[in-house]
């Protein structure tokens, strides 16, 4: 096998392995784009860059080398533009929650890694691969232990004739260590159901669990409630 062909195989193999490692971390945490997606994205990016940087091998052999103009940066730009659409496909919003941002970012950097491997930039490619894996794994552990504030989307539904006052609702939420940051109101079921829509803030995630437990057992007038923590 010619040396240049063997070198291309090294580039493709390294890109496939890097994408697979990142994808394994995503699959382990149950993300929509996992092992196979990241492996394919990284391998495809590397393959396209190899094609771009070796045009002289697949163009007309009778064409003089001076007539060949290669611009791999245009291929890299096209790859990153296309990956933007793929990354956008894994992001969706539900209430206050925005899901898939980290997965979209991992797809984006996986594509960039494929470009680096495809042009043979081993040191930055390997360094970025290790940094990505550390960011996805170690930073998750750090993030969970950092002091922070938590937000939740909260809805309470009552029969119209048994609806408590706003002050009573705020007092109930406050007893469980939560603060109402915003509140809106709505009528449903042809005016038979009154709903409080709130955004809650708390410094302890367990306060939301305790609030949900209280609502589940203590109020007969409550028809239904929804409590969803904001986050990815």
Q: Keywords for this structure?
A:
232 residues; alpha+beta; Alpha-Beta Plaits; 2 domains; four-stranded antiparallel β-sheet; 7 helices; 55% helix; 19% strand
Overview of the structural elements:
Belongs to the MgtC/SapB family. This is Protein MgtC. This protein has 232 residues and is of the alpha+beta class. The chain has 2 domains: 143 residues, no CATH class; 80 residues, ACT domain (Alpha-Beta Plaits, 2-Layer Sandwich), CATH 3.30.70. The protein is built from 7 helices and 6 strands. Strands 4-5-3-6 form a 4-stranded antiparallel beta sheet, covered by helices on one side. It has a two-stranded antiparallel sheet with strand order 1-2. β1 and β2 form a beta hairpin. It is elongated, with a radius of gyration of 26 Å. The model has no long low-confidence stretch (mean pLDDT 84).
């Amino acid at each position: 096998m010619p040396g240049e062909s063997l070198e291309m195989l090294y580039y493709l193999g390294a890109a496939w392995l890097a994408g697979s490692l990142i994808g394994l971390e995503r699959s382990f945490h149950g993300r929509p784009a996992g092992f196979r997606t990241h492996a394919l994205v990284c391998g495809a990016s590397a393959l396209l860059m190899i094609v771009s940087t070796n045009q002289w091998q697949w163009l007309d052999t009778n064409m003089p080398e001076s007539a060949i103009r290669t611009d791999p940066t245009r291929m890299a730009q096209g790859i990153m533009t296309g990956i933007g659409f793929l990354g956008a496909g894994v992001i969706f919003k539900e209430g206050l929650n925005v899901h898939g941002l980290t997965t979209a970012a991992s797809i984006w950097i996986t594509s960039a890694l494929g470009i680096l491997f495809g042009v043979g930039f081993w040191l930055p490619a390997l360094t970025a691969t290790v940094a990505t894996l550390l960011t996805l794994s170690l930073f998750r552990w750090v993030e969970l232990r950092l002091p922070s504030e938590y937000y939740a989307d909260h809805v309470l539904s009552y029969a119209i004739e048994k609806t408590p006052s706003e002050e009573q609702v705020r007092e109930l939420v406050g007893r469980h260590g939560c603060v109402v940051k915003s509140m809106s109101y709505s009528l449903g079921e042809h005016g038979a159901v009154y709903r409080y829509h709130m955004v809650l803030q708390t410094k302890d995630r367990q306060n939301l669990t305790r609030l949900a437990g209280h609502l589940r057992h203590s109020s007969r007038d409550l028809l239904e409630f929804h409590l969803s923590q904001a986050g990815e």
